[in-house]
Amino acid sequence: MICAMLKFLLKPLSAMSLPTVHRLGKTLGNIMYVLMPQAVNLIKDNLEQSKLLPHEDPKYITKLNMQENGKALLESLAIWQKPEQEVIKWVKACSNWDLIETAINKKKGIIFLTPHMGCFEITSKFYGSQYPITVLFRKPKMRWLQALTTTGRSNTQIHLAPANIKGVRSLMKALQRGE
User: Fold this and answer.
1) For residue 3, which of 76, 77, 70, 71 has the smallest C-alpha distance?
2) Distance CA 139, CA 167 (A)
């Protein structure tokens, strides 16, 4: 019931253009920056510990990070609601696809490492539109989101594997099949 209501509420998001989703996501990120001080402090702490940006303004970088998180969140929600053909249109470029084709032709399995930076959700959708793929994932902690994410991440060529030993076995079998 909750999943159906969420899908109904999110449907307009899936009809928007990617730039519009990004503008809304940036606004959401600004709201999160104000309303989620614990997340802001965690980002600041991580930046300080990394020492990667010693000359940048931590407040600016933290706010920018929250904006990107807002964009990624809304982008994921839109992707989960869009028809696959429409999602694929959001892919602007794909570099080195010839390496993937070579591995497939050699029946070599491929492991994609997709960091959780930006919207990684489109990666499996793009690849799964052409070839079968097994994706390791962890269910969201909030039960009411589980059905939405599972249906949003699935399609006929995307097999979801839980982030546990059973899922690792599924990944190994997929690699052995040359996926």
Assistant:
1) 77
2) 12
Tokens of 89: 């249109």
**What is the distance between the alpha carbons of residues 152 and 82, in angstroms, rounded to a whole number?**
9
Contact 71, 21 (CB under 8 A): yes
Per residue, what are the HEC states of the chain? CHHHHHHHHHHHHHCCCHHHHHHHHHHHHHHHHHHCHHHHHHHHHHHHHHCCCCCCCHHHHHHHHHHHHHHHHHHHHHHHHCCHHHHHHCCCCCCCHHHHHHHHHCCCCCCCCCCCCCCCHHHHHHHHCCCCEEEEECCCCCHHHHHHHHHHHCECCEEEEECCHHHHHHHHHHHHCCC
**Six-digit token pair at 11?**
């449907």
Query: Tens-digit pLDDT profile for the chain (179 aa)?
Result: 666 777 787 889 989 999 999 999 999 999 999 999 999 999 888 888 887 766 677 788 899 999 999 999 999 999 988 888 898 999 988 899 999 999 999 988 899 888 766 677 888 899 999 999 999 988 888 887 888 888 888 888 999 999 999 999 999 999 999 99
- How far CA 66 is from CA of 16, 63, 89, 133, in Å, comes to 21, 5, 26, 30
